Amino acid sequence: MAIAERPPPTEAVTPRLSLWRLVWPARVPGRFRRTARVPWIPIAIIVVIVIMAVFAPLLAPYSPIDQTLRDKLLPPAWMAGGSDKYFLGTDAFGRDILSRLIYGARVSLLVALLALTAGGGVGLAVGIVAGYVGGAVDSILMRLVDAAFTFPAILFALLLAVTMGQGFGTLVIAISLLLWASFARVIRGEVLSLRQRDFVALARVRGCSALRIMVTHILPNVLNTFMVLVTLNIGVVIIAEATLSFLGAGIPPPTPTWGLMISEGRGRIAEAWWVALIPGIAITLMVLSVNLFGDWMRDRLDPRLRQL
Amino acid sequence: MKPDMRGETVLEVRDLHTHFFLRRGVVKAVDGVSFSLRRGEVLGLVGESGCGKSLTALSLMRLLPKGGAQTIKGEVLLNGENILKRTPAEMREIRGRRISMVLQDPQTSLNPVFSIGDQLREAIERRKRAPNVEVMKEAVAALRRVDIAAPEQRIGQYPHQLSGGMKQRVVGAIAISGEPGVLIADEPTTALDVTIQLQYLKLLKRLQAETGMAILFITHDFGVVGRMCDRVAVMYAGRIVECGPVRQIFEAPQHPYTRALIASVPKMTGPVGRLTTIEGQPPSLMDLPVGCRFASRCPLVEQRCLDAYPAEVRVGDAHTADCWKVTPA
Amino acid sequence: MKRYIARRLMQGVILLFMVATIVFFLGRLTGNPVDLMLPEDATAEDRAALTQTLGLDGPILDQYAIFVGKAMHGDLGMSIRMKQPAAEAFFDRLPNTLVLIPWAILLGMILGIPLGVVAAVNRGGMLDRAAGTVAVLGVAMPSFWLGVLLIFVFSVELGWLPSGRMGGPSHYILPVITLGTFLVAGFMRITRSAMLEVMESEFVKLARIKGLSEATVIWKHCLRNALIPVLTLWGVFVGNLITGAIVTETVFAWPGIGRLTYEAVIYRDFPLLQAVIILKSILILSINLGVDILYAYVDPRIRLA
Q1: Is B62 on the interface with A (CB under 8 A)?
Q2: pLDDT in tens, C153-210
Q3: Which of A4, A5, A8 sits opposite B21 (nearest CB)?
Q4: Taking the CB of residue A114, how many other CB atoms lie within 10 A of it?
Q5: How many structural domains comprise chain A?
Q6: What is the ipTM of this complex?
Q7: Is the backbone peptide bond immediately before C114 cis, with ω within 30 degrees of 0?
Q8: Chain C 140-169, residues with CB within 8 Å of chain A CB atoms
Q9: Which residues of chain C neighbour A242 with C-beta distances below 8 Å?
Q10: Residue A30's pLDDT is what?
């Protein structure tokens, strides 16, 4: 706050449009303002990964599960001993890392999508009901939310894997459990303030049932917040899926998921670091991009959520 | 008031300009303010909200808020030396010791996680380095001086345990711990209960009599001005429009704005009529007119008021007003 | 204050019951709880014996009563793989994990809090963005991958540090870094936003009026206030750490409760997993309660209320 001995500001110098700016959209005055504000690189990365996931069968050079033991543990193409046949090398079973990576994207994104829909959906519903109905229902639901917050859901996910068996469904349910509480809490807050608004009172005067009000009036108004929450949580889901796969509670082999690949490659880290480390780079890039993108979306759509 | 203490000018502000440089324009919050303050006197700085009074005070302390505010012109002579030219480090030395400030809201002025004693100690230690026991004794004495009962207990207490009036006294104690020559009081009673206000003003007066410090008393309340101040400067839209001894200004205000202000103070005696207000709004500080800034609301307005900013006219003994329509003394 | 503690204790107990109940039902849900709780080579007699003790052929509420009764006595079942009471296995390994956690928190705080202060003071500037990048990176990297990466760099390639197992100080370094990294981001983020809020306060202005140095204003006056919300996060963080330990201990072959959890999952050792979950819940709840009490103590407004 102390004033410095600086002269009055002159015209702002147009900043260099550096790579840095593409990642971190900044307060850039002048003609770059519109475009520099958008985080292009993260968006590009997300698009690439989505394309990988969707078009996996077309893009992957090999099948992700075929084993060619003859070619096992080959380094990536740019290293000594690598070959152009397997761009990112092979794992202990001779499976092409690149292909597994591409198919792994598919699994990760699919799980993420389903878990976000399920967990987010439940959270949305709980939030709306708790916020709108209030009273005892609200108290009970919020106690549940508090419990969910206090207690780490990963453990439940593991328990589910053991009791219900590993598999796609179990994984999706488990990850949904992670999400619903935070969605519920935020949405409830939104609904509490919406509830006071005039259009709700009008609807009640018109004789609309509570259910109808919640669906036709409240729901559309919280969708904005919901979308932001979704984008902010994609990263969480991806890491959760990877972690569960790593711990052996995810989708069983031989289906490639990035977490599983790291787990499998761990034992051979000394001779073949690429097996374990490359999938991690993919995860990190994906989550980083999604988080940066999510932050940007949140700033554009609903800056009030900044404290999350 | 010891007669030999009065007289010496301790603070002189010359043509102070503090502007906010925003994206959409420049807000000329303080736009050519000049006044002087003498030892032992209380100068009131009066004006509506937003006229630039608080910002003037902050400019003097060189504590402008971050985000575009700059003092770009003028001089602030504290005991003869221009403090606007000092480095931040030197300024820190000056603050608290030679010039100090009391803020408006006692609820937020004190740090909630430190005890009263700790906060006083910080101020006292700037004046003397002494073992803790001695500093604490001084702190207790300081609290006693501002009329806080049971000061030994209060030392260990936290701000939330004190009432608003008491907190403001503590803030006062902190402000004078460094024995400053100039105290800026930025609306110190505005947030206090009316019953407490009078006590606080008396306290300030008493402290001033004891220390001989000069007080710049900022307020929007003319009633308080009458009680506290020896001289008063009336501020409007970033400039001082009239300045003079309190009695003269109350009895014969010269500038139309001053007149309107005084007329709008509800009188507690006499028949009850309609409350007088001043029509219109102050001009936007981003878009100031060329001529007199009060012109759009002035009952005496004529063409020359719109054409050029009025010159400063001496209308009495140490009494000036910036208006084309006043008669010089 | 005492009432506050009592209330939080009650809440904790209720939560614990909820958790235990859910765990119980999950175990019974899957149709064949006996198989879940016995090794594959169990004889028919073993099966019958277990069914008897747990009342598995009776009504579900009776089973629940038995379950709770046994739990109160500390009997949380027998680990299939380790042939040891599950609770015993847990407590044997608990100290090993407890020893890692404070270091991880320390790391998070030592790196995260100053980063947060620097980011807040330099808001919008290069340092703020740099600190922010560090934070985001910390969260984006899966901790198990970080662990493997660290092992690769420091153990395999450089040979400076051991790649696992418990041991002397050098064994602690990599696991603590792995466990604490995501905390750095968390601490940085809250410290930054807390500081930004505190820096606007009037008492900060007063501190400057007193003529205190900028460093004193920021690090003493602002930070002390900003730390209050930071402390509340400790509770959340500890929960995250205990689950994070699962992965970290697995990667570094560290014999703690995290690795125990992993083993329970891999070997489908349901009784062990059940016990681990319940005991971990107790652990987390206790720590949360402790943090809340600490928080109430640190903020004089609550302490003296």
Answers
A1: yes
A2: 888 777 777 777 777 788 888 889 988 888 888 888 888 888 888 888 888 888 888 8
A3: A8
A4: 18
A5: 1
A6: 0.81
A7: no
A8: 140-146, 148-149, 151-152, 156
A9: 142, 144
A10: 40
Question: Does the structure show a pLDDT above 80 at B295?
Answer: yes
pLDDT in tens, B114-137: 888 888 888 888 888 888 888 888
Q: CA-CA distances (angstroms) from residue A155 to A239, B107, C30?
A: 15, 46, 18
Q: Which amino acid is at C174?
A: L
- Give tens-digit pLDDT for C22-65: 888 877 776 666 666 776 677 777 777 777 777 677 777 777 78
**Mutation to test the A interface, candidates C14, C17, C145, most A Cβ within 10 Å:** C145
DSSP B44-100: EEE--TTSSHHHHHHHHHT-PPTTTEEEEEEEEEETTEEGGGS-HHHHHHHBTTTEE
At position C216, the amino acid (one-letter code) is T
- Torsion angle in degrees (nearest 10) through CA of B98, B89, B31, B180: -10
Q: C101-246 belongs to which homologous superfamily?
A: MetI-like (1.10.3720.10)
Question: How far does CA A17 lie from the centroid of its chain?
Answer: 28
| Burial class, A2, CB count within 10 angstroms (exposed 0-12 / middle 13-18 / buried 19+) | middle
* C274 interfaces chain A, CB cutoff of 8 Å: yes
Query: Above 50 in pLDDT, residue A194?
Result: yes
Q: What is the mean pLDDT of residues A43-67?
A: 83
pLDDT over 60 at A45, yes or no: yes
Give the DSSP letter string of A111-154: HHHHHHHHHHHHHHHHHHHHHHH-HHHHHHHHHHHHHHHHS-HH
The pairing of strands B99-102 and B81-82 is: unpaired
Place of tokens 């409830």: A188
In a domain, A264, yes or no: yes
The superfamily in CATH containing domain B9-40+47-93+230-267+275-322 is P-loop containing nucleotide triphosphate hydrolases (3.40.50.300)
Across residues B148-158, what is the average pLDDT? 88
Determine, for residues B69 and A9 on separate chains, whether the beta-carbon distance falls below 8 Å: no
Enclosing domain of residue A153: 81-301
Structure tokens that stand for A135 in this block: 């009273």
pLDDT at position B187 over 80: yes
By 3-state DSSP, what share of chain B in percent is helix, strand and coil, each rounded to 5? 35, 25, 40
